[in-house]
Amino acid sequence: GKDVANLLGAKFEDIDASTARKLGITGGVKVVELGNGKLSRNTNMREGCIITKVDRKPVKSVVELQKILENAQDGVMIEGVYEDMPGTFFYAFGL
After folding, report:
1. How many angstroms from the chain centroid is the CA of residue 2?
2. Which of 1, 7, 30, 49 has the greatest number of beta carbons closer than 10 A?
3. For residues 71 and 95, is the Cβ–Cβ distance under 8 A?
4. Which helix (H) or strand (E) holds 74?
5. Cβ distance 69 to 85 under 8 Å?
6. 59-90: pLDDT as tens digits
7. What would the mean pLDDT of 18-24 be, rounded to a whole number?
8. What is the secondary structure of 74-88 as a DSSP string?
9. What is the three-class DSSP state of 10?
């Protein structure tokens, strides 16, 4: 399979239950570090983004995120939220 973290140029971690509750979501995966890769090159995502869905599928763990991205064919759309900004953000990019 693809090395998803490397491809995207990001380090991910699962968020904890209290963070999820605070944001009103069931779970998500936080982008803790953004280096050189698809996300920094093709989107304006910032570190701290909490990914909640990929291609409208809920993502609650790093493992789930990797599985969905490994099976994605052409491109994906990521939905995410930030702890310091209201609203949902959408990031689409090709793989």
Report:
1. 16
2. 49
3. no
4. none
5. no
6. 999 999 999 998 988 899 999 999 999 999 99
7. 95
8. SEEEEEEEETTEEEE
9. strand
Cα–Cα distance between 2 and 56 in angstroms, integer?
21
Tokens of 23: 């944001």
**Hey, CA dihedral for 42, 44, 50, 51, is it positive or negative?**
negative
Beta bridge partners of 30: 13, 50
pLDDT at 42: 95
Short-list 53, 51, 39, CA closest to 93: 39
In Å, how far from its chain's centre is CA 72? 14
Q: Which amino acid is at 46?
A: R
- Dist. CA 48–CA 50, nearest whole Å: 6
Which 3 state secondary structure label does DSSP give 59? coil
Q: Within 10 A of 30 (CB to CB), how many other CB atoms are there?
A: 22
